[in-house]
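Moderator note: this is an archived Q&A kept for reference. The question asked for a predicted structure of one protein chain; the sequence and the answer are reproduced below.
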Amino acid sequence: MKVFWLATGAAVGYVFGTKAGRERYEQIRTAARQWADKPAVADAVGKVERIAAGGRDAVTAKLSDASDAVTSKLSSGSKSSGNSETVPVSGTKPLKTTSVASATSG
């Protein structure tokens, strides 16, 4: 019998809790929409979007420059060395390696 009353209490609490929760959710949603419709908020959102776009363009330019520099170094490095070299690894026999450019150009 105790389990029955416990389950009944939980069910009633759930029903009233969800109804109250839904009402509060609607209040918060209405307040958020009213706040978002204000002209000052729309201006601030536009400003943030412009700043973000400028930052995105700056980051894209920096990444492009860095990529070009890495590509240039890899290209010039493979022309000067051209040969394989051995790389000692602690506790093992030396491994024979090839440069990245010659391994991918094949």
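Archived answer notes: Residues 36 and 45 are 9 Å apart (CA to CA).
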